[in-house]
Design brief:
By secondary structure, the chain is of the alpha+beta class. Helix content is 29%, strand content 19%. The strands form two sheets. A seven-stranded mixed β-sheet has the order 1-2-9-8-5-6-7, covered by helices on one side. A two-stranded antiparallel ribbon has the order 3-4. It is globular. Residues 60-206 form the Thioredoxin domain.
Length: 208
């Protein structure tokens, strides 16, 4: 004669612990400093297409307007991106604690300086996030000779201004290129080399 075994039931406390573990794991995944995997192609979105390079682009006329970003910079000055309309703007989200950010910093320093020296109509702006100390951020800028200002946003509040579903900077590092009307033309969620960075900027600079 076989005996049937009653199914095991998870206690309410066990279920609560499991849900807590899943929640914490998910939060760690979302807030981790992103590596190259974040830039894998994902096909197309509502108004943009992501290529094999991991760079997403939006056609002129289908772009979402970027929110104005304003506040104190790492060097203690103030900046408002709304005043930059009429120029192509490169927004780079970074943290001094983020290895991919350190890896791409020399490319940003070089390309931004070369474009400025050439008189190109483009402005670079950094957004420094999750750095608890301005000193760490300032040391990063000094180490890599970053020639442009960065908004100091330790709580990431500025990034929350971007509308959901748009080409928003939801990883660290992230880079956005805004057209002369202040709309998001391109985005990547992965660290960039010099050639990739130029490939994002040049088509937007060429627009009439």
């Amino acid at each position: 004669m076989s005996l049937s075994r009653a199914p095991r039931r998870r206690s309410p406390g066990g279920r609560a612990l499991l849900l807590t573990a899943v929640t914490v794991t998910g939060a760690l995944t979302l807030t981790a400093c992103s590596g190259s995997d974040s830039g894998k192609p994902t096909g197309s979105g509502g108004n943009y297409v992501t290529g094999a390079s991991g760079i997403s682009t939006s056609a002129k006329g289908e772009r979402t307007e970027a929110p104005g970003l304003d506040g104190e910079t790492v060097d203690g000055k103030t900046l408002d991106t709304a005043a930059l309309k009429g120029k192509v703007v490169v927004l780079n989200v970074w943290g001094s604690w983020c290895p991919p950010c350190r890896a791409e910093a020399p490319s940003f320093a070089k390309v931004s300086k070369e474009l400025a020296d050439a008189g190109k109509d483009v402005v670079f702006v950094g957004v420094n996030v999750r750095d608890n100390s301005k000193q760490n951020a300032a040391s990063f800028e000094e180490t890599f000779k970053i020639p442009y200002p960065s908004l100091y946003d330790p709580d990431g509040k500025l990034l929350l201004r971007f509308p959901k579903g748009s080409l928003n900077p939801n990883a660290i590092p992230s880079t956005l290129v805004l057209d002369r009307e202040g709309k998001i033309a391109a985005r990547t969620l992965a660290p960039l080399g010099e050639d990739q960075l130029r490939s994002m900027i040049d088509p937007v600079l060429a627009e009439q």
